[in-house]
Amino acid sequence: MDIYVTELWMDHALRYDHMSPCKFNLSLNSEILDQIWKPNTVFINSKAAHIHKSPFKNVFLMIYPNGTVWVNYRVQVKGPCSMDFSAFPMDRQSCHLTLESFSYNNQEVDMQWTNWTDALSLLKKEIILPDFVLTNYSTSIERQIYPAGVWNELTMTFVFSRRYGWYIFQAYIPTYLTIFISWISFCLGPKMIPARTMLGVNSLLALTFQFGNIMRNLPRVSYVKALDVWMLVCLTFVFSSLLELAMIGAIGAKMDVSFLRTQSSIFSRAQPFIYLLFIKYTFSKSFLYSFVT
């Protein structure tokens, strides 16, 4: 993630408002930053971070007459995200970046978010990634106790929502079609056992292969994901159509054709109705999340 970090602090040793004439501010080279006092702010939870150097070190330094130091630098940082795939692929993920003074506790450096402007703002109106969209961001401040004292931690939280269009076309629509194909067996006569068996078995094999192909590209976690529930229920519906075939076949050996048609008609109406209800409630995110957690 590329971000601009702005820091302001007061250093009375750098005051020059007593001089006359006095400039409104001084913009200095970034090399001067190594010669003055700094709060030594770091991303305490980052995995990697570096300041851009294209074509030179991207650091801005300004000093005001009252001794206020303004430092702005462009940094690329890689931070942790608390991943929860319970509602996958309609999930939301939160990522956190925490700033802290590495060398000074809050008795020496009292780190705070600015209150005269937005502490966190976006340079772009909308941030869209290949798989995610930034939907929310916020800031917070916490106190962390260490053996050497108490430190103020400034945390930025970014919430990303997954773009699930790819999964609609690769997972949901193909499973719809497979279920609908398995229902063709309900339209066939109760005596057409070979044709109905072929449709049911082929649908079950196709869905099983598709399930394995999808799972191969998904994150491996120890808990059940929403997509797992979807695929397993679809497998259950196809398998139930085979059970209906077996029941009709077993009853057919003892009953007449009119009774078979009645029983087959009941199954052919009940299963699509139940499946459509399942589709309706599946795309309710609150239902999905509560079902898998």
From TrEMBL:
The keyword rRNA processing appears for this protein: no
Membrane topology of the entry: Multi-pass membrane protein
Pfam families the record matches: Neur_chan_LBD, Neur_chan_memb
Location of the Neurotransmitter-gated ion-channel transmembrane domain: 172-250
Domain of life where this protein originates: Eukaryota
Annotated Neurotransmitter-gated ion-channel ligand-binding domain residues: 1-164
Family indicated by similarity: Belongs to the ligand-gated ion channel (TC 1.A.9) family.
GO cellular component term of the entry, any: plasma membrane
PROSITE patterns: NEUROTR_ION_CHANNEL (PS00236)
Taxonomic classification: Eukaryota, Metazoa, Ecdysozoa, Nematoda, Chromadorea
Full protein name: Neurotransmitter-gated ion-channel ligand binding domain protein
Keyword list, A-Z: Cell membrane, Ion channel, Ion transport, Membrane, Signal, Transmembrane, Transmembrane helix, Transport
Organism, scientific name: Oesophagostomum dentatum (Nodular worm)
